[in-house]
Amino acid sequence: MNANFLTQRTQILQQIAALQTMEQGSLKAEFRDSPSGERCGPYFQHQVWRDGSNVSRRVPPQEAAELQTAIANRQRFEVLADQFVELTVSHTRQSQPVTPLKKKISRAISSWRKPKKSSS
After folding, report:
1. How far is CA 76 from CA 62, 79, 110, in A?
2. CA dihedral 79, 83, 86, 90 (to 10 degrees)
């Protein structure tokens, strides 16, 4: 195996392992106007897609920062997982011998053909 490949792969896995919290969905801050004209908020709303529908819940302001970190960690995980897949696929393709696809297909098709019947 290529040493550079192993180093990059190990770095990605270490970054993934460092993510201690994760949460799905998104967090939105809302502000409202009170009857006196003052702007109130922020009020936080956590939205998640579950079982084919959007589920939302209010989040207290003291929990919002922690939840936002967990959402960012999940997003970072997805980026790192994509990098891991791309790196591994690239390494796999480099280590396989290159055989033209056209030859593979023509060989496979010729083995599928049935011999012709004689007309006598």
Report:
1. 23, 5, 49
2. 170
